[in-house]
């Protein structure tokens, strides 16, 4: 009985620990506008640095968009929220490797965002299915608005 009660308490606390109802920054400001086109790099601890382009849309604090790389055949979707000047979201990967296998995965990314630059990281990197090519780990994404 005590274990069941402890599980209910932990689940309740976790469910209530989300973001506040309206996005605010450290000084109580509104969410930074990050809609638009961004160019930069994607670096991981197990792959070469890749060039990257992102096109983002924003509705309030909700962010969505796409990305692709001119260096490799990777592309995908981006989704998340901006809370003040902090982004928290997902970076989805899809790409075909040399043997024709399509590899997919998702990285949870977080980091600061301003109107001119963003630096997102994912310590765990891309988590996905079986792939003959190494999925990126220790991911760092640095982009500037175009």
Task: Write a brief caption for the model.
With 146 residues, this protein is mostly beta strands. It is built from one helix and nine strands; from the N terminus they run αβββββββββ.
**pLDDT averaged over residues:** 83
Would you state the CATH class? Answer: Mainly Beta
What is the β-strand count? 9
For the record, the CATH architecture stands as Beta Barrel
CA-based gyration radius: 17 Å
Largest sheet: 9 strands, antiparallel
Q: Tell me the structural class.
A: mainly beta
Note the overall shape. elongated
Distance between the first and last residues' Cα: 58 Å
- Put simply, the count of helices is 1
Uncertain regions: pLDDT < 50 for 5+ in a row? Answer: 1-28
CATH topology: Lipocalin
Q: How many domains would you count in the coordinates? A: 1
Helix content: 10-25%
**Widest sheet: strand order?**
7-9-1-2-3-4-5-6-8
Provide an overview of this structure.
The protein has one helix spanning 2-16; strands at residues 36-44, 47-59, 62-68, 74-83, 86-96, 102-112, 117-122, 127-128, 139-145. The protein is built from 1 helix and 9 strands, in the order αβββββββββ. By secondary structure, it is mainly beta. Residues 1-28 have low confidence and may be disordered. 10% of the residues lie in helices and 52% in strands. Strands 7-9-1-2-3-4-5-6-8 form a 9-stranded antiparallel sheet, with no helix packed on it. It has one domain (33-145): Lipocalin (Beta Barrel). The chain starts with a helix and ends with a strand. The radius of gyration is 17 Å and the shape is elongated.
